[in-house]
TrEMBL record:
InterPro entries: Brnchd-chn_aa_trnsp_permease. GO terms for biological process: L-valine transmembrane transport. Belongs to the AzlC family. It is a multi-pass membrane protein. Its main location: membrane. This is AzlC family ABC transporter permease.
Length: 234
């Protein structure tokens, strides 16, 4: 087997266990798009254009609440800021590639693609023909995400109006949030962000989410510094 195909296949194989979490997430994204008032085409288009689960759900939720477009875009950007760190970390491994190939790799960048690829690329015992392993991971995630979104759209469009599914988005965000509340600063950040977002719910343009996120980050940083100053762990 060609080494490039072997690396691509290895990326596909290593991604398969992750699909247990990706598939239901994609289904919820499709349902949430329909429930927020988007057409099926708009929902699928957003999935293709953004290709970022958490920011998609946040954007759909805000659109469903008639938030200003600027707030929707800013929210998506803030949620995806971590991709800048991922890019800076993985970019040296793709330095020799053409601009077109690097742009394609950037489009496929997700938490899962970064985690699998960087672990393999930093393993000194692995001789990886870049970027084929990464493309195997990213392409698999992309195809499954889009297919799951389409199925969710079809399912959501067929659900009777009496079966309200607005609870799906908050439940997914809770599922994403709980595992990361693993230290005192993070718990402080989460609690403060939630409290401020609720209190600021009446702000114009539905900006309460942005305000809550910013205040939560500041609170988390403050809690971490106070813990370190007092000799406590994070």
């Amino acid at each position: 087997m060609d080494t490039r195909l072997a690396d691509f296949s290895a990326g596909v194989r290593d991604t398969l266990p992750l699909l247990l979490g990706i598939v239901p997430f994609a289904l919820v994204a499709g349902v949430a798009g329909v429930e927020s008032g988007l057409t099926p085409l708009q929902t699928v288009g957003m999935s293709v254009f953004i290709f970022a689960g958490a920011s998609q759900l946040a954007a759909m939720d805000l659109l469903g609440r008639d938030a200003a477009l600027g707030v929707v875009v800013l929210t998506a950007v803030v949620i995806n800021l971590r991709m800048m760190m991922y890019s800076a970390s993985i970019a040296p491994h793709f330095r020799a590639l053409s601009t077109r190939v690097r742009a394609g790799c950037a489009y496929l960048l997700t938490d899962q693609a970064y985690a699998l690829a960087i672990a393999r690329y930093t393993d000194e015992d692995e001789d990886v023909r870049k970027p084929f392993y990464y493309l195997g991971v990213g392409a698999t995630l992309w195809v499954v995400w889009q297919a799951g979104t389409v199925v969710g759209v079809v399912f959501g469009a067929g659900v009777p109006d009496a079966w309200r599914l607005e609870f799906a988005v908050p439940l997914v965000f809770l599922a994403l949030l709980v595992p990361v509340l693993s230290s005192r600063p993070r718990i402080v950040a989460g609690l403060v962000a939630a409290a401020v977002a609720v209190l600021a719910a009446g702000l114009p343009f539905n900006a309460g989410l942005i305000v809550g996120a910013v205040v939560g980050v500041v609170a988390g940083i403050g809690a971490k510094r106070l813990g370190l100053a007092a000799g406590g762990g994070a």
